[in-house]
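ok here's Aminodeoxychorismate lyase, seq below lol
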Amino acid sequence: MVSRIDGLAADSLAVKDRGLAYGDGLFETVLVKARQPVLFPRHLQRLAVGAQRLALNLDLALVDEECCRFAAQLGEGVMKLIVTRGDGVRGYAPASDALPRRILQAGPLPAYPESHAEQGIKLFACETRLAEQPLLAGLKHLNRLEQVLARGEWQSAEYAEGLMRDVSGRIVEAVYSNLFMVKGGVLLTPDLRRCGVAGVMRAEILALAERENMPARELDLQMSDLQKADEVFVCNSVYGIWPVRGVEHMNWPVGPLTRKLQHLVRGLLDI
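and the structure came out like this:
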């Protein structure tokens, strides 16, 4: 399927684009099933927050229309939306009249092993630390070099994901997923006010927990808290939920709350 830039079929980008020069922009990775972008209102909501934070003059109604049309043509797969500030001249200062650029790319559904969801995965404990920057915390911005460095730390198929901490040692997330743990029947997930990506599936799970009367909290978590967990899982908007069975010397069973949430999430993704 041909990529689209600003609504037109294209496969090349202007060298003056600030996304290329400075990572000045945002992106969303959206699951497409039955010609529909899954959980798209949440993707748009996060995009709107990011656009406001970065002062991008983005037409969200146009983005919505273009993405839904693109998803309908794709049918099934993964749609990547990239929004940059558009063209610029040399220097960091953004032009006040810059026109954001919209880039849409299509990809196939990833072929993850079924065992990831059924038996669970092992996490690699990454040495790369996430910098604390509250102004960018939660956003799916284009600056992903921390994740690139972290993912380069392991090559073994023994690990399906990596655990990431901030410079103070707090647990933040996985490399391309968010992390939850269960302790005493309470669902816990790291506070993302300093750094990290506020994932669409993370938001959906917190909303599901509220609807199902599951107690849930967002708070600072250390490795010592992980040691006391009854269950651990990771999530994102493409694969749903993967139970975590181990990291370093710690191990956990696939617990009942993880299985319950997994079942509920599958209902959302299998439209």
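fwiw The mean pLDDT is 96. kinda neat tbh
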